[in-house]
Each structure stands twice: as C-alpha cells, then as structure tokens.
C-alpha cells in the first residue's frame, strides 16, 4: 500500500519529497478558475482534458468553473515509462465534440518541452475553433523547447520530475492527492 512516510516516497533509488500540498493546489486552482470564468463569461467554452495526466486537475478545475461549459477528452502518449520525454507524441484518443467556431481550452497536467501542446494545437486548429487556449496545472519553463503560448497556468516549477495528482512514473502514483518532486541527487 502507498503510504508516504513524513511526506517522502522512496521508489527504488529515487526519493520524492512533498512539493505542492492538497491545500495549495485547491487554493490556486480556484484562483485560476475565477480568471477563466471572467474571461469566458459571455460564451460557452469547451474544456478538453488531456488524458491521462490531467484527470485530477480537470475534475477540481471543473468544480470551480461557474459558467456554462462543455467537456471532452483527448488522449496523447509521449513519455512511455521513462522520466525523460521520448520526443514522440501519439494520438491515442481524439475528441468527440465539434469545436468549429467554439472557444476551446485545453486542460493539461504539465507543459515540459512543449511538444505535446504544439502537437495538440496543430491538431485542434485544423478543426477551426474560434479561439484555442491552454490551462496547465504545471509549467517547467526551463525545459520548454518549442515555441508555445501558455495562456493560463497554476504553478511554474523547476525542471525536476514530479509525480502525484494525476502525474505518473511508469503509470503509477497518479492517485496521490498532492505533488511530489524528485529530490536532487537521488
Ligand atoms: P511535453 O510534451 O514535453 O511538454 O510533455 C508533456 C507531458 O509529459 C505531460 O502532459 C506529462 O504527461 C508528461 N510529463 C512531463 N513532465 C513530467 C513530470 O515531471 N512527471 C510526470 N509526467 C511528466
Ligand atoms: Mg499530459
């Protein structure tokens, strides 16, 4: 059973330390949701959750969105089981709704190199939305390699691997309610 001791988790040789608590996540998500609601108060946007990583963020964000909206889901794979981006993005599940002429907001867990967001932009802009933006829970600004806009984000974090709150290591640890960061030197 997964039971973080003193808010650290040891996985093989790696030690992860608590980095963003549940309370910090909820407070910041509420703030960002309020900004989005204000920006989109005159329209009915479609929020597109990128699976699997953004599922928890999507859920908490949606609970704080107080305007009319729709939701849909898209699934990409890029990391495989490694801690470094493979540099390849595959579309595993496309959206089902029509976004032509609509305001669309992609909901991401993290922008790392920016490749996934660049890939989704190219894909979704081809479907002619009125406006396409992103809200990302985390941004690793130092790691960005592609020219991408990040319209809304909750936390700008250093270039260190993180797990929890939807983010995985080899598909595990997504169920942790807070975010843990790989300790330097581990
Ligand atoms: P990008 O395409 O390099 O921007 O990577 C984006 C995707 O890689 C994210 O949506 C995550 O699924 C995954 N990713 C990037 N950094 C991390 C991390 O520190 N932990 C877990 N997953 C990550
Ligand atoms: Mg993702």
| Total of DSSP H or I helical runs spanning 4+ residues | 3
Helix percent band: 10-25%
CATH topology grouping: Rossmann fold
Task: Tell me the number of strands.
Answer: 10
In this entry the ligands are:
inosinic acid, magnesium ion
Q: In angstroms, what is the radius of gyration?
A: 16 Å
Specify the biggest β-sheet: 6 strands, mixed
Shape: globular
Q: Please tell me the total number of domains.
A: 1
| Sequence of strands across the biggest β-sheet | 5-4-3-6-7-8
> What proportion strand?
25-35%
Q: What would you say the CATH architecture is?
A: 3-Layer(aba) Sandwich
Order of helices and strands: EEHEHEEEHEEEE
Low-confidence parts lasting 5 or more residues at pLDDT below 50? none
> At the first level of CATH, what is the class?
Alpha Beta
First-residue to last-residue Cα separation: 22 Å
Helix vs. strand class: alpha/beta
Mean pLDDT, nearest integer? 93
Describe what is shown at a glance.
With 186 residues, the protein is of the alpha/beta class. The protein has helices at residues 22-39, 55-63, 115-125, and strands spanning 8-11, 14-20, 46-51, 70-77, 90-93, 103-111, 131-139, 152-156, 162-163, 179-182. A hairpin with a 2-residue loop joins strand 1 and strand 2.
């Amino acid at each position: 059973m997964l039971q973080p001791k003193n808010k650290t988790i040891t996985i093989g040789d790696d030690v992860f330390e608590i980095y963003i608590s549940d309370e910090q996540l909820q407070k910041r998500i509420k703030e960002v949701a309020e900004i989005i609601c204000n920006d989109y108060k005159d329209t009915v946007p479609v929020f597109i959750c990128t699976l699997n990583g953004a599922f928890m963020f999507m859920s908490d964000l949606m609970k704080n969105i107080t305007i009319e909206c729709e939701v849909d889901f898209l699934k990409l794979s890029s990391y495989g089981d490694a801690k470094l981006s493979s540099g390849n993005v595959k579309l595993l599940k496309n959206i089902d709704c029509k976004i032509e002429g609509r305001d669309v907001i992609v909901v991401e867990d993290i922008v790392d190199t920016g490749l996934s967001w660049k890939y989704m932009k190219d894909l979704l802009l081809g479907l002619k939305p009125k406006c396409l933006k992103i809200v990302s829970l985390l941004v690793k600004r130092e790691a960005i390699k592609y020219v991408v806009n990040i319209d809304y984000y909750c936390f700008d974090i250093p270039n260190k691997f993180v797990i929890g709150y939807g983010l995985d290591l080899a598909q595990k640890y997504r169920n942790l309610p807070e975010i843990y960061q790989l300790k330097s030197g581990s």
